[in-house]
Design a protein that fits this description.
By secondary structure, the protein is α+β, with helices and mostly antiparallel strands. The protein has helices at 2-29, 139-187, and strands spanning 32-34, 39-43, 48-50, 53-55, 61-67, 72-79, 83-86, 94-96, 102-104, 113-120, 126-136. It has 2 domains: 29-136, Immunoglobulin-like; 139-182. The protein has a 6-stranded mixed β-sheet, with no helix packed on it. A 3-stranded antiparallel β-sheet has the order 3-9-8, with no helix packed on it. Strand 8 and strand 9 (102-104) form a beta hairpin. The chain is rod-shaped. It binds 2-acetamido-2-deoxy-beta-D-glucopyranose (2 copies). The site of one 2-acetamido-2-deoxy-beta-D-glucopyranose (NAG) has 6 residues, from loops. One 2-acetamido-2-deoxy-beta-D-glucopyranose binds at residues 51-53, 97, 99, 101.
Length: 190
C-alpha cells in the first residue's frame, strides 16, 4: 500500500517536472518582438525603415503584411539564413533583414497604412507587431507651385508698375504739349 502511494507520487512528480521542462523549453524557444517605434511619417520618394528585433531560440519565419482601409496584401516572408520571398510588387523596394526589420524605399502615397509583422517559431507559436506609416505629398512640389505663383504675381506687379509709370509719363507729356499748344492762343493779342 505504502509502495503504491510512493509510486503514485513519483509518477505525479515526474509528470509535473516533465510539464515544467516542456513549458520552460517552449518559453525559451518562444519568439519575442522588440520594437521601439510604432509610427513613422515620411514624404513621397523617401525611405522607411521598420525596425524590429526578433528574438527566438529557433529560426523564425518573418512575415510582413500591408493593410489599409481598402486592401490587405502580403509584402514578403523570410526565414533568416534559409529563404527570402518578397512579393513581386515589392521586390525592387523591400529590403529584408535577419532581425525581422524591413526597409521600404521610394515611398508612394499608396504606401500609407498599417504594416504588420508576424513572427512564427518552429513550434507554431506566433507574435505580431504593427507599424503605422504616414506618407506626405512631396513638399518641394508645393514649394515649386508656390514659387511659380509668387513669380507670376511679381511679374504682374512689375508690369502694372511699368504700365503706370508709362501712363504717368504719357499724361505729363500730353499735359505739357497741351500747355504749349494753349500758350500761343493765350498770348494772341485781341
Ligand atoms: C536590425 O538590423 C538592421 C540591419 O542590420 C539594423 O539597422 C537595425 O537597427 C536592427 N534593429 C534592431 C531593433 O535591432
Ligand atoms: C513566395 O510567396 C508567394 C506568395 O506569397 C508564393 O506563391 C510563392 O510560391 C513563394 N515562393 C517561394 C519560393 O517560396
Amino acid at each position: 500500500m505504502l509502495m503504491l502511494y510512493y509510486r503514485l507520487w513519483d509518477v505525479h512528480d515526474v509528470a509535473v517536472l516533465l510539464c515544467f521542462t516542456l513549458y520552460m523549453c517552449h518559453q525559451a524557444r518562444a519568439v519575442s518582438i522588440q520594437s521601439t517605434q510604432h509610427s513613422l511619417t515620411r514624404s513621397v520618394q523617401e525611405d522607411a525603415f521598420f525596425s524590429v528585433d526578433v528574438a527566438c531560440n529557433c529560426t523564425p519565419t518573418i512575415q510582413w503584411t500591408f493593410m489599409s482601409s481598402s486592401v490587405s496584401r502580403a509584402i514578403g516572408v523570410w526565414r533568416p539564413g534559409v529563404f527570402i520571398n518578397i512579393t513581386d510588387d515589392y521586390s525592387s523596394r523591400v529590403e529584408a533583414h535577419d532581425n525581422g526589420s524591413m526597409g521600404l524605399s521610394d515611398l508612394r502615397l499608396q504606401d500609407a497604412g498599417y504594416y504588420v509583422v508576424t513572427v512564427t517559431d518552429d513550434m507554431g507559436g506566433s507574435k505580431d507587431a504593427g507599424y503605422v506609416l504616414k506618407v506626405n505629398e512631396v513638399l518641394y512640389e508645393d514649394l515649386q507651385y508656390l514659387s511659380v505663383s509668387a513669380l507670376a504675381l511679381a511679374c504682374l506687379a512689375a508690369l502694372l508698375m511699368l504700365a503706370m509709370w508709362l501712363l504717368d509719363k504719357a499724361y505729363r507729356k500730353i499735359v505739357a504739349w497741351r500747355r504749349r499748344k494753349q500758350m500761343p492762343v493765350l498770348h494772341v493779342p485781341v
